[in-house]
Amino acid sequence: MSTPSPVPAPASSRSHVWVWMVLLALAAVLGWRGWIWWRAQSAHEHAVASGTVERLDALTGRVDALRRDQRAQLQRLQQADATNRVLRDELLGIGQRAALLEASLARLADPDRHGAQALRLDETELLLMLGEQRLLIAGDLDGARRAYALASGVLEGVDDPSYLSLRQVLVQERAALDALGTEPRAAALARLDAFAQQLRMQPPPAAMDTVPANAPWWRRAFGGLVQVQPTDRAIAMHGSDRRQAELGLQIELSLARAAAERRDVDGFRQAIGRADLWLTRLWPESPALRQQRDRLQTLAALPLSLPLPTLGSTLQQLRQLRAAP
Predict the structure, then answer these.
(1) How far apart are CA 271 and CA 251, in angstroms?
(2) Are 182 and 141 in contact (CB under 8 A)?
(3) Where are the transmembrane segments (predicted)?
(4) Overall domain count for the chain
(5) 281 neighbors 243 (Cβ within 8 angstroms)
(6) Per-residue pLDDT reduced to its tens digit, 30-84
């Protein structure tokens, strides 16, 4: 009996296998190529992103550098502006000084004003002002007389007839200064100092309050034990009371001296009045006390201001004449 031969596969089935195999190979190739393309595209995008970030960083750095340069330029511009303002102010000052110098030279060169005459008038005005200030502030009557004498000598060199009346006023003011005698404030201060000096040399009340030999027997017997004082005022005889009273008297005399220095008549008289009260605390009722109080009243009545209504009239008239066109 014979063996049956195998049945061959149909040709269409084998062709389908080959087709699927080709398709699978083609799909694998396409997948591999797609994966390679994706990898390349991803790398390209990453490179592009990295380049963009680097460019942004570079741009940011350049912007920061530009801002720093801009701030530096702004500071330089501000410094240049400040320098220009300083230079402008200096130029203005130089221009003003130049204008003043030109005006001064024009006044000196003006034939109508006579430069030498203008200088003499300036010197006369300065001497008159110095004399007035020395008299009013320092009480230096002799210095004021010397200054007025120098002003008179300088004014004699001015040959302009319009200043003739000024020389006459100056002569009258000098005559009033010569007739003044002693400056009132200096005289008051001298008499106040003499009073204070004499008061310090005066003996204490105990040395003055001795019992007379012809006194009654009870006064001679009990004069050293019993002291009689007025009821309206207490006399500081010993210890701290007398030292305080002496200190108060010296303070009031110092206040009176300070008021006289500034020509304060009211303050001077008030200080003298308070010194009189302290004097009654230091000395008992006696002819010596009345004499000292009379001296204080005389001091309080002394004038402190200058009885010179013409003081400064020459200087005022000189300024009016020079200010006239």
Answers:
(1) 9
(2) yes
(3) 17-36
(4) 3
(5) no
(6) 888 888 888 888 888 888 888 788 888 888 888 888 888 888 898 888 898 888 8
Rounded distance between C-alpha atoms, residue 308 and residue 176, angstroms:
7
The span from the CA of 79 to the CA of 69, in Å, is 15
Residue spans of alpha helices (H) in the chain? 11-109, 115-133, 141-156, 164-178, 184-201, 205-208, 217-222, 239-261, 265-282, 287-300, 313-323
User: Longest Cα pair distance anywhere in the chain, in angstroms?
Assistant: 210
| Residues 81 and 29 both lie in one domain | yes
For the record, the structure tokens of 176 come out as 């009033």
CB count within 10 Å of CB 223 equals 16
One domain, residues 176 and 281: no
Whether residue 192 is found in the same domain as residue 284: yes
Q: Determine contact, residues 245/282, Cβ cutoff 8 Å.
A: yes
- Residue 139's φ and ψ, nearest 5 degrees, are 65, 25
The burial of 275, by beta-carbon neighbours within 10 Å (0-12 exposed, 13-18 middle, 19 or more buried), is given as buried
Q: Are residues 168 and 313 in the same domain?
A: yes
In terms of residue numbers, what domain contains 32?
22-109
* Prediction pTM value: 0.43
Per-residue tokens: 145: 């007389």
What is the C-alpha separation between 78 and 59, in angstroms, rounded? Answer: 28
- In this structure, the answer to whether residues 103 and 27 fall within a common structural domain is yes
Q: CA-to-CA distance for 47 and 65, rounded, in angstroms?
A: 27
How many angstroms separate the CA atoms of 246 and 281, rounded? Answer: 9
pLDDT in tens, 167-190: 888 888 888 887 777 777 777 888
